[in-house]
Amino acid sequence: MSHHIHRSLSALTLPEFVLDRQQSEPVDISSALDVEQLDTNLFRSRSLYLPYNARGVFGGQVISQSLVAATRSVKSEFALHVSFVHILSS
Fold first, then answer.
1. Strand 12-13 to 42-45 pairing
2. What is the value of pTM for the model shown?
3. How many CB atoms lie within 10 A of CB 16?
4. Phi and psi at residue 32, in whole multiples of 5°?
């Protein structure tokens, strides 16, 4: 199972559009976590929230989208039971 999830997490790609710094915060959780399936185990974010004056996108949203992509890549009987995340800043 972990092999499939690892592949899915690494296959999440960023949108091909330029991030708009004036974009508003997502209204609901489902739109913030929405990912588009491009191919088997290949997903792309539909939206990324870029807070005003931030150095990058909101890391929690990227991690959550990765988990959505991972769960869509494995059989339904597999479920995430624990996740540890470290976000490093440069």
1. parallel
2. 0.65
3. 6
4. -70, -25
| Tokens coding 58 | 């909101």
DSSP for the chain, written as a single string = -HHHHHHHHHHEE--SSPPPTTPPPPSSHHHHS-EEEEETTEEEES-----TT-SSS-HHHHHHHHHHHHHHTS-TT-------------
**Segment 19-36, tens digit of pLDDT:** 555 556 666 788 889 999
pLDDT tens column, 39-61: 998 999 988 888 888 888 888 88
Task: Please state the length of the chain.
Answer: 90
